[in-house]
Every structure is written in structure tokens, then in C-alpha cells.
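Journal club side-thread
Mid-discussion, someone asked how the predicted structure for our own chain would compare to the paper's figures. Pasting it here so we can look after the session.
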Amino acid sequence: MAHILISFINSEMFVLLFSLLAKMVIHKEQKNSIPMIIMPFVERHPNTINDALISVDRARGEMPVLLVSGTPGYKEQVAGWCNWFQCIESPPVPPTLLEHAITSDKRGDTEHFLRWRTKEAWDALFAMKSFLKTKRNWLIWLQDDTIVVDLYDLPDQEITCLRVGTEYCGMVAYKLKRWVVEEFVKRIELEMHSTPIDWILDSLRQDLGLALHRVGKVQHKGHKSSNSKFRKVDMN
């Protein structure tokens, strides 16, 4: 009788343990299916980054946020947000990479633009590698001069532009599947000395045979590009 009772208890404990482990696995999978928001930021007018992050906080739900500072020491200027979101700082661009970008130029771009373009790619590379250190399956990429309208009902496509309207998506806002981010990182490492990152992403998407889906969720508020040309601000 005692042997039967012990066997029953052991069986019940096994069922309970198996159930708990299954729930843990399901919870982990559900957690990893929640996108991570990554926003690289540089020194701007305080209202620009504040407005962007207020909109992110309102829209993010359970999504974690990683802020990546591309301006040395500037992380301290947004310390209030860094107490709320995770903040890291991108390392300096290697001088050899900047020199390579300048000497490889074939379009006649200014040195200022080439330095800015290479710094943008370097910061993006660091940010995406930080994302890949997590187990998250989806990345939401946002520029720091944006306003998030909402992040509801995002499609689960490999690559989705989240910029409102019909203007060129650039690198304003995307939802990217993890494997696409992995491929993007490899391509950035190969081409960041010669090609803007938005062009790299466009080229990668075409090489992979992926359609660019578009859902208007994020407004781009930047009105002046890195080459000093003025551009339209996204409207609702």
C-alpha cells in the first residue's frame, strides 16, 4: 500500500513539474515574441528627444526599450529617461573606418557628410548587435526625431516600414525579424564605409527577395537632412 502511495505521489509531482516547466517555456516564448524597441539618439534640441520618448512610452505596452547614445557623454543629458529605459553608449568610430570612408568616396560627398554617414552606420551596427545579444525575435527600429502614433496590430512580416505616408522610408522606422537583423549586421560591416545604411537595407531586402510591407505608425519630424537639404515633415 505504501509503495502504491509513493508511486502515486511521485507521479503527481512529475505531472506538476512537467506542467510548471511547460508554462515556463511558453512564457519565455511569449516574452521573446514581444518586440524590442531600439532608438539610437544623438545630441539634439531637448524637445526633440523628449517628444519622441514620450510617444514611445505611451505606445510601447510591454515592449522593452533600449536607447543607444551616439554622442559621447550625452547619455547624462537624458538621464531621466535612462532611469526609465535601458541606456548604453556607442563606442567611438575607429579612425581607420572614417579614413576608409573618405578615401573610398566616389560620389563627391563632403567630408562632413561622410563622417556623419559612417558614424550613423557605426552606431546602428552597435545598436543591432546589442539587440542580437537578447533572445527577442523582433526589433522595432526608431530614429530619435520621430513621433510614434501607435504600435498596435503590427504585421509579422520579415520587414515592415512603419513610417506614415508614402515618402521614402529611409531608416526612420521599421519592424524587422531577427534573422533579417542578423543579415543586416553582416551587410553593414561589409559596406558601411561606402554606403548609407538605408541603401544597405534596401539592397539587402532585394537580394533576399523580401517584399517591403508598410503600415503607418510613426511620423518623421526631421525637416533637415544630413546634407543640409530641407525635406517634408510627415503629417497624420
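Post-session note: The chain has seven helices and eight strands.
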